């Protein structure tokens, strides 16, 4: 399935997530890089040495979740939009998720948008909490949403209504 479509299985996705105990402590990166490719901006962008690729630039990045502060710099720098940040410390019923978002128009804080899974299917309405637009050519805008915990391993993108 993954080789044909590029869509990871739920098992593959869960392997990339830090343990739920870490997610519930505060924001932490989820580095969804599945293929060996020559790429490393995530590693070089992290000031906390939380991502390691090693000597071979083709290696798959490995996250040390204890070093990660959830700052989302790597997320903004990843050309593959492969990273998100999840924070389960704010509520027992919801999680906050930072997502890379490269479409226009950008949503606005307070807006309700459609939450999409990795196949692009609508799975829920989610609330936009914050939009960070770095206005730098090498940084991707970051949209923070609040989503129900039941879709934490499914939510991967959003869709706004045309304005
Ligand atoms: S979220 Fe921040 S601390 Fe965590 S891996 Fe990315 S750059 Fe490093
Ligand atoms: S920057 Fe993104 S695509 Fe490149 S190695 Fe890191 S996670 Fe993978």
What does this structure look like?
By secondary structure, the protein is an alpha+beta fold. It has one domain (2-159). The chain is 15% helix and 28% strand. The chain has five helices and nine strands. The protein has helices at residues 2-5, 10-16, 20-23, 41-45, 73-77, and strands at residues 28-31, 51-52, 62-63, 83-87, 94-100, 112-116, 122-132, 142-148, 157-159. The longest helix has 7 residues, at 10-16. It is globular, with a radius of gyration of 15 Å. It binds iron/sulfur cluster (2 copies). One iron/sulfur cluster (SF4) binds next to helix 4.
Which keywords apply here?
163 residues; alpha+beta; 5 helices; binds iron/sulfur cluster; iron; iron-sulfur
Give the mean pLDDT: 95
Secondary-structure class: alpha+beta
Q: How would you spell out the order of helices and strands?
A: HHHEHEEHEEEEEE
Main beta sheet strand tally, sense and closure: 7 strands, antiparallel
Number of helices: 5
Strand segment count: 9
Determine the fraction of residues in helical runs and give it as a percent range: 10-25%
Coarse morphology = globular
pLDDT below 50 for ≥5 consecutive residues: which ranges? none
Beta-strand portion reads 25-35%
Total domain count: 1
Radius of gyration from the CA trace? 15 Å
- By oligomeric state, this entry counts as single chain
In whole angstroms, how far apart are the ends? Answer: 36 Å
Name the hetero compounds present.
Answer: iron/sulfur cluster
Strand order of the largest sheet: 1-4-5-8-7-6-9
